[in-house]
Amino acid sequence: MEKVTASNYFSQMITILVGKEQRKFMIYEGLIRESSPYFAAALKKEWSDGQEGVVRLPHDEPEAFKLYIQWLLADKIRSITDRDSPDKNYEKDIEPFELAQAYVLGDTPMDVDFMDVCAETLWRWHKAVGNKSFVSSGVITMFVESYKGSSKVKLLMCNATERELKWTLEAGSWL
Prior knowledge:
Elements: H1 6-9, E1 13-18, E2 23-28, H2 29-35, H3 37-42, H4 48-52, E3 54-57, H5 62-74, H6 96-106, H7 112-128, H8 137-146, H9 152-170
Helix pairs in contact: 5-6, 6-7, 6-8, 7-9
């Protein structure tokens, strides 16, 4: 493999079309190839994607991919846990559903580091809201339908949901 230098890391731009609507993202080829085995393979010149410099991800969510690009560029996902940070340069708090979507998206480019950051951010979010459940039925359904692998983040969601159910029953209320 070619040695990564600043000149080849930030050289040619490629296009990634995400979702059914094919939302267009531009990213440095060297940056995404270095992080993702999927993109490293897809962008080889013997493949049409590599020749065109365009990769299509029709089954992924554009907002989740946006988080992936932000993470590639900043090496961080900003969330509720960053509110006290001196760097306030972010649009809004990232919600658990968005983090869960981003985690599932991370499976497409096979970017384990990104998936780990998503899981860690979900955990920090959970701790920041006082260990109360942050898991909606939509998050659980999305995980069950979209992500077939087993993971610690699934375990975290199940534990948080179980804890919320116990709190609800102890309080004598049901939904």
